Amino acid sequence: MREIQAAELPDIATGAALLGTGGGGDPYLGRLLVRREYLRGRTVSLLDVGELPDDALVIPAAGMGAPTVRVEKLPNGDEASTAFRMLERHLGRRADATMPVECGGSNSMVPLLVGAQLGLPVVDADGMGRAFPELQMQTFGVYGISGSPLAFSGSHGERGVLDTGTDNVRLERLARGVTVRLGGTVSIAQFAMSAADVRRTAIPGTLSLALRIGRCLRESRERYRDPFAALTELFKETAYAYATPVFSGRIVDVERRTTGGFARGTATIESFVDNSVLELAFQNEHLVARVDGRIRVIVPDLITVLNAETAEPITTEALRYGLRVTVFAIAAPPIMRTPEALAVFGPRAFGIDADFTGVEELA
């Protein structure tokens, strides 16, 4: 276990935003909330799940809702800890640690915020290895952990607990309805589990990987090196194994709408060098990238949009006409490519009429 330094927060937020595939919330907002706790004299420690005894209780914490709303409807900062304490009271037991449910610029920061406020360590792992739009789309649920009970907290004092037993899909539907009624965003605590179950179902090392990614991008700029080449090399040393730029160009159209608690839409990018066009479809996160109608990357592999010069990640709510971008693809870890996992968050789970093929094959 080691203490996360305040100076590391920007790198973690940047790296998590890149892994977040366009979703997971605004990285700037997330790190500001944690930074405020550090200015108050609080800190947070990161630990490997192997450091916890098997029966230790771990409760993940996150924000839920459309990222377009969260940018405009800023949180008070204590909603996540309120939801966390509610779930502890409901379970009749204090947690030994918290952790992210997903990678994302803001959602990777939420457990750090909870950890700093409540004096809890944060487990270096998560349940997606990226970000997904729906609660059931986690390796926790794929491999047998129930998302119930789920505690939620809104920005005006609303709070409650939802329990649908082992039905994580129904939990998503009910929690999404509550989120919409509360203005499109809430904080949640769910998937309470033992450390033994975290070791069995989680994707390890994702917070420390986010730190490495953010540091890689920052140092590449400082040393005037190609950040995309540096990223490609970095991922070779990880469980993701394969990463590559797939397209560079200028955004010429963005169609985006906030509906049903999600930000849905498409972005169209024209190539810098020829007449090729990449169309990107998203539901909070990027789901499929097609170049001239041909699939180049598809969920659950990671599709992230980066600034063409700096490689800074651009979230779906920040996509704008005229931005010069590079679409960067990353292979999902093996735990996310099993038949069980693809049934929950593969292409057909999003209504995409295509089977999954890895980016290393499509490229």
Automatic annotation (TrEMBL):
Gene3D superfamilies: CV3147-like, CV3147-like domain. Residues 167-357 form the S-Me-THD-like C-terminal domain. SUPFAM superfamilies: CV3147-like. InterPro entries: S-Me-THD-like_C (IPR048350), S-Me-THD_C_sf (IPR024071), S-Me-THD_N (IPR010318), S-Me-THD_N_sf (IPR027479). Residues 8-163 form the S-Me-THD N-terminal domain. This is DUF917 domain-containing protein. It comes from Amycolatopsis samaneae. The lineage of its organism: Bacteria, Bacillati, Actinomycetota, Actinomycetes, Pseudonocardiales.
